[in-house]
Amino acid sequence: MPSDDPRGVVIARDGNGDGNGDGWIGLAATSDHRAAGFVFNEMTGVRAPYRGRGVSIAMKTLGIGFAGLCGASRIRTVHHRANATVTAMNRKLGHADARWDYP
Asked: Of all helices (H) and strands (E), which one includes residue 28?
């Protein structure tokens, strides 16, 4: 897709490449929609044994850096209302509930 940009992808790893550790533990992807005035956090996921350690917020923070690379002043994301952990993380990063249309 035109909005895909490898600079917006963050992969978190456990280990230093020597074969010890579990390899990849998380992924976050932010896409470029600067023509519409924003970047979009497509997804953030962390393997269950690594949750609660700040990995998600670290990856989403790097996504904020991607917004700066794109010159976008807005970052949009969505989350399921029942997922209190993700809702709290998004609030901590400054996300607010909004109604918006996107084609």
From this structure: strand 23-33
State pTM to two decimals.
0.79
What does the pLDDT look like over 36-88, one tens digit per residue?
A: 889 999 999 999 999 999 999 999 999 889 999 999 999 988 877 788 888 88
3-state secondary structure 39-92: EEEEEEEECHHHCCCCHHHHHHHHHHHHHHHHCCCCEECCCCCCCHHHHHHHHH
Estimate the crossing angle of helix 84-92 against helix 55-70, to 10 degrees.
50
Angle 91-9-103 from CA coordinates, rounded to 5° = 70
